[in-house]
Prior knowledge:
Layout: H1 23-29, H2 37-44, H3 52-67, E1 70-78, H4 105-117, E2 122-126, H5 136-149, E3 152-156, H6 162-171, E4 175-177, H7 185-191, H8 200-212, E5 217-221, H9 229-246, E6 251-255, H10 274-287, E7 292-295, H11 301-307, E8 314-316, H12 345-354, E9 358-360, H13 367-373
Parallel strand pairs: 1-2, 1-8, 1-9, 2-3, 3-4, 4-5, 5-6, 6-7, 7-8
Amino acid sequence: MTTVLPEWLDPRPWLDLTRNTDPAPVRQALQADHPDIRELALFLSPAADTCLEAMAQRARAITRRRFGRTIQLYAPLYVSNHCPGGCAYCGFAADRKQVRRVLDDAELHHELDALKALGLEDVLLLTGERCAECGVDTLAHAVEAAARRLHSISVETFAMTQPEYCSLVDAGAVGVTLYQETYDPVRYAEMHRWGPKQDYLNRLEAPGRALDAGIRTCGFGALLGLGDPCFDTLAMVRHIRYLMRIHWKADYSLSFPRLRPESGGFQPAHPVNDRLLVRIILACRLCLPDVTLTLSTRESAAFRNAMAGIGINRMSVASRTTVGGYDARSPATGGQFDIHDTRDVTAFCSELRTLGLEPVFKNWDRAFQAITATP
Length: 375
């Protein structure tokens, strides 16, 4: 049975505009004080290539006005790669040949200490889909351990119920990232061959449950290459705007992950080249001026340098997509996917400063949670 898209999400009324080849409507869209979904569609169109410089200048001005000349830094930390899911594009899928493990307490502490030694205070904890080896209790335990060492703890894992998200908030989590992967329900069904992630609507509605539970910041993304990137970008922006109207006190972030090589050899049906990715990032900055835009180590050093401060204001650094690997005492498994930017923290920060940008290791303090929770 095909999932029916909610009206507030459906991007199809504007999809034809993403195929526009006339620069005039794009130039007109650039004059809008508050670009909406129609302007977003035009910014995504091939005709926008003739206006990229103007789009970049406006995006840079918006980014500097809202975020200054800063790039927030974070690191992903994989707690487990056990997964019962059948995601066709993932190196952790159940049919991939992988050494499977969960970080034990000593390994988790070593990994966290290694990240802190690098100066990092913002960590994103990741797992596979919900399973006996790693469920909510395991994740909450990892959040609590991380929150005792670092200041900003987020999770990127399976969809949960509101009470389960409450348990993560109680443990010290301040953020949840949950990619819909693709907003096209037909393509979504094809890509999720088995497992709990097959439930499109349950995943779509999970960010709202997390925000209801008291999560402070919510991250979104579509895995670029799975479906039509213009369809996914339009739907993703509509998704964020819908939640912003309801949860207007929360912060939001948006990521732009392109498919990278993984152990299953999956090939994207809709590959996204650099120019299209630039259009997507600039379009999102123009239409979401207050949203944090994130670019991970999936991208090359050169591409990340080019986009830093223009639309992007948050980046991962020194990433590992393995379970273990930051500390030599925690032997690493195979990775979920191959990273592209392999610079260490020192080299990365040095290049940012050369570009006139300042790396930010900490912009949140655990004390804020206690203050917020006080009646």
